[in-house]
Amino acid sequence: MSIRKRSGEIRYKPIGIIHSPFKEAKGTPIQPRAAKDINGTVEVFPEYTEGLKDVEGFSHIILIYHFHLSKKLSLKVKPYMDSERHGVFAMRGPSRPNPIGISAVRLLRIEENILHIQDVDILDGTPLLDIKPYVPEFDIREASKIGWLEKSVHKLPTSKDDGRFIK
Amino acid sequence: MSINFKFKQIGLIRTPYIDKAPYQPIDGDKGDFRIVLDGKYTEGLLALDSFRYIYVIYHIDRLRRNPSMSVSPSWTPGTKVGLFASRSPVRPNPIGISIVRVKKIVNNEIFTSGLDVFDNTPLLDVKPYVKDLDSKNDANYGWISGLESDQEHLLLHIKGIPHEY
Q: Of A107, A108, B150, B164, which is most buried with the most CB atoms under 10 A?
């Protein structure tokens, strides 16, 4: 059941660094809703500053980043908020075949190449890969099913990373 | 900076689009839209079918241009905006994200609603879409709301849906 692969490697480079009060995985909120009101900054490398024009008009942005501290992959994982194991693709945790993270955060303001953001659930020093504007038409879905999270989503405001996913 | 991170293709995305694809996913799009995961990752799909929507993350591999920090979205000619204020596929790291509906999962295949990518696009990741985390109900439309056209008409352009007015 192996699939036909493209030739050549996929390599991405950091375009900036995310700064937050969370210096280690332990204690970091696991999603932006749990990270409400936590402020951070995104430092975009100067060669990309011009690409930030017009970003300031958006109330929210999507950050795509490299989970640089994720540990060895396991396809079935016990998530933070449940006692049963789930497939890694049914979870948002950092230990994945490709450790790519996505967070939608509130944008407060931009000064030159520094974006001031709120509702940050990202570790300090995380390498940034991309910024996309959050557009309600594309990014809001009326998902009435939230899967296995349904019975534990109320735990979010207090669930913190206990360090289980780092090396 | 010369640091870079290596990622791997974990599957591919099958769509009817060979030469032209919509700019954004169209939920009611007709055709066969499937994510084919490399068989060795099948176990990782456990419980994913309990979610209605998923993020599909992929490598945009059919680009012929280098990124420019200033872009003119094809659906609004003449408007110039910063690259990161746009969803243009031509970016320093060509990572695409689409939110689609899960229809069913059979073995290593996820059948979905319409995807806005070319056939055989390399898959990087799949994540559940969680309304409580991902829906920002007070989000605005940034520079898009400043354009002189009605929102509904603009959205047809943004999504690349053909229309006659």
A: A107
